[in-house]
Amino acid sequence: MKKLVLTLFVGALMLAPSTSNAQAFEQGKSQVSAGYGFGNFIQALFETYAVYDGFDKSLTGPLFVRYEYGVSEKIGFGVNFAYASVAADYNDIFGDSQSINWSSWSALARVNRHFGESDKFDPYIGLGLGYRTASWKFTELGTGTTTSLFPLGMEATVGARYMFTPNIGLYSEIGIAKAIAQFGINAKF
After folding, report:
1. In angstroms, rounded to a whole number, what is the distance separating the alpha carbons of residues 68 and 81?
2. DSSP H helical ranges for the chain
3. For residues 183 and 171, is the Cβ–Cβ distance under 8 A?
4. Fewer CB within a 10 Å sphere, N or C end of the chain?
5. Collapsed DSSP state (helix, strand, coil) of residue 161
6. Which residues are registered as beta bridge partners of 95?
């Protein structure tokens, strides 16, 4: 996943033309973002197992990769991919070794409404709708795996980009998504 994010970022840098006096968000331009999130509800639930002996938790993400195309001066359409996972090992009250694993990914179509007029600062709100899946694996009561019954994914966020150069910047969002808060890098081309 790290290689994919790095490849997308480097590719965006190579394709990004040098322009001046451009808006942070522009019609006809593409934006690629890669980020990391904080505040995932399921990952927080795993902390309830911390009371058991031998508790050990490892997590990945939430990781975000996003593409957006400016279809007008204020509206952008794109796609958002997100992934998160967590695994916990612990000893139950009988001293038996147990584990729980959860992973989830989503691919959402997304629309952003941009409010900025600046060449550096781009505030926006975003809504996404698409496919989401999650799977759980438990060893507590024997090995078993379950997957999500409702594969509809949604997100609603408020965010902003700050462009350090005409083509490279950072983004930050808060809202209802795989993470309550997320931040990352952004490239415009």
Report:
1. 12
2. 2-15, 41-45
3. yes
4. N
5. strand
6. none
